[in-house]
Backbone:
């Protein structure tokens, strides 16, 4: 019997709502997963991608990860993982660094045996490159086989990946497919195989109202109903979000909103206030200030009536960064222009360093990805696929990774994916020597891959 924790979408380093406390919450949630793994004495922790929120995690997030992986390693529990769309860089991955330190294993088509089960990996691959995948995996020598993958797979919401085709073309008959990317936990039987999302370990958007958690997957469980594979859900205690939904009557206004907010315990919580109905206009700042005065760590107001009146734009004004990104995306800029815009607006780049950073980024794009300067939608545009852009509830854009998955090196692309702000640019190298953990450059201690690999 093989028993593993299936987790993913931990998004370490996400400074949600520009809050240092929320950034710490994401690491705390991952710490609880590791602690649960040790307490339950599982055979492995399997991570289905997006360990980090972006390609240049902060120094504190790297140190925190190293500390937790060492704790897991000391307990004799292997950490198996793949690369998701948020964290991917052009060449070396942070996961490669952890593997060279002996703290992780990057799953691929060769497979890793854990007890009676062989685990294979499929990094995120942009939709435009998936036709090149051959789904050729080395044959397992164990009784069970599982594929760990990152993407939006059928039959779940926002899907753009044909799961049946994957299973039919794969050289291995998988007993389970363990997925990351969709933050909503779910499971289904596809062509006789269990396919499941573990969900995220923290809320990356106000749309994620359900409890966060992970899956406990057991292979060779005699009590399982189908094929000896048993999947159970485990919840995680995380910072509480208070969702206050107010439907205003014709004669009601801000006083009614404040009354409803005041009915909740907001101490150290994130308060998300959504206003709908009729009534008079409200000032979000007044409501947010009212909530903070009552102990809320963060307060955001989303007046759905304003969204409906603004040409039916599907934008949450509880997060202005999301609104800006949505508007920029509608301009149809080239991939390079979008990247440079993000660099200019990114608060982690000091004003004095913006010119140098942009010049370096343009030079790199010209040398490595000249097609990225083509207008969006043109024949010469890079791997961005308009049909691959999905709205999964928070409108957040993410820079996709490159990396090898099933024998194909994926190029970077930009798409809308659940889980936060636009990933940042990182230059990478190929040297293997680890010489310390940063020199304090990069604004808030952000680390680039070239400092480590």
Residues:
């Amino acid at each position: 019997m093989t028993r593993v924790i299936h987790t993913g979408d931990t998004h370490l380093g996400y400074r949600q709502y520009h809050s240092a406390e929320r950034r710490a919450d994401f690491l705390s949630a991952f710490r609880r997963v590791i602690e649960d793994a040790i307490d339950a004495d599982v055979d492995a922790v399997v991570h289905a991608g997006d360990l980090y929120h972006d390609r240049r995690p902060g120094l504190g997030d790297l140190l925190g990860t190293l500390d937790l992986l060492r704790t897991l390693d000391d307990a004799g529990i292997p950490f198996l993982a793949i690369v998701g769309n948020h964290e991917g860089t052009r060449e070396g991955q942070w996961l490669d660094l952890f593997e060279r330190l002996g703290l992780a294993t990057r799953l691929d088509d060769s497979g890793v045996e854990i007890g009676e089960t062989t685990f294979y990996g499929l990094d995120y691959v942009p939709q435009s490159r998936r036709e090149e995948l051959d789904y050729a995996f080395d044959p397992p020598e164990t009784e069970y086989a599982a594929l760990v993958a990152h993407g939006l797979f059928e039959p779940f919401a926002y899907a753009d990946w044909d799961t049946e085709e994957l299973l039919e073309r794969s050289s291995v008959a998988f007993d389970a497919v363990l997925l990351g990317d969709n933050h909503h936990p779910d499971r289904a039987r596809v062509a006789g195989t269990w396919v499941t999302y573990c969900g995220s370990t923290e809320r990356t958007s106000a749309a994620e109202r359900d409890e966060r958690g992970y899956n406990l997957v057991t292979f060779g469980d005699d009590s399982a109903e189908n094929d000896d594979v048993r999947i159970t859900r485990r919840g995680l205690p995380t910072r509480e979000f208070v969702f206050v939904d107010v439907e205003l009557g014709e004669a009601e206004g801000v006083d009614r909103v404040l009354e409803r907010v005041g009915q909740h315990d907001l101490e150290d919580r994130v308060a998300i206030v959504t206003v709908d109905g009729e009534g008079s206009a409200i000032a979000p700042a007044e409501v947010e200030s009212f909530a903070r005065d009552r102990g809320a760590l963060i307060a955001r107001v989303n007046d759905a009536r304003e969204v409906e009146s603004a040409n039916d734009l599907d934008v949450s004004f509880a997060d202005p960064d999301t609104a800006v990104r949505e508007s920029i995306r509608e301009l149809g800029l080239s991939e390079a222009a979008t990247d440079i815009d993000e660099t200019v607006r990114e608060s982690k780049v000091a004003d004095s360093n913006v010119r140098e950073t942009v010049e370096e980024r343009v030079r790199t794009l010209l040398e490595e990805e000249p097609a990225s300067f083509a207008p969006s939608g043109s024949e010469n545009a890079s791997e961005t696929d308009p049909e691959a852009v999905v709205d999964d509830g928070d409108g957040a854009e993410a820079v996709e990774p490159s990396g090898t998955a099933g024998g194909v090196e994926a190029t970077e692309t930009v798409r809308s994916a659940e889980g936060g702000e636009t990933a940042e640019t990182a230059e990478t190298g190929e040297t293997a020597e680890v010489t310390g953990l940063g020199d304090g450059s990069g604004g808030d201690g952000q680390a680039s891959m070239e400092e480590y690999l």
Confidence is low (pLDDT under 50) at residues 310-315, 377-443.
